[in-house]
Amino acid sequence: MTCHSKVTYLCPNGHRTGVIDSEEGVSPYLIQCPECGEKARSEGYFFAGHINYTHMFYMPGIEEIRQMTDQQIEQYKNKVLFLKKIEK
What we know:
Layout lengths: L4 E6 L5 E6 L8 E3 L6 E6 L8 E6 L3 H4 L4 H8 L4 E4 L3
Parallel strand pairs: 2-5
Antiparallel strand pairs: 1-2, 1-4, 3-4, 5-6
């Protein structure tokens, strides 16, 4: 995994999610908070506090693309990255 940058997201309930930007593409401004499901807003690439980066953005492979909804296919076509939990 090549790490291009790291970004944090904050939801209205105060959950902060650290995401590694591992692929070329567009990082979304909003994601679904992995903790509570609310919309989490990007804090950008400059968060100064300590945070565990538990998720990553990626571009899906062909097998995953075949199972996508129409909305996800549009996201893929527009080169908007997808979010997944980092497996340890």
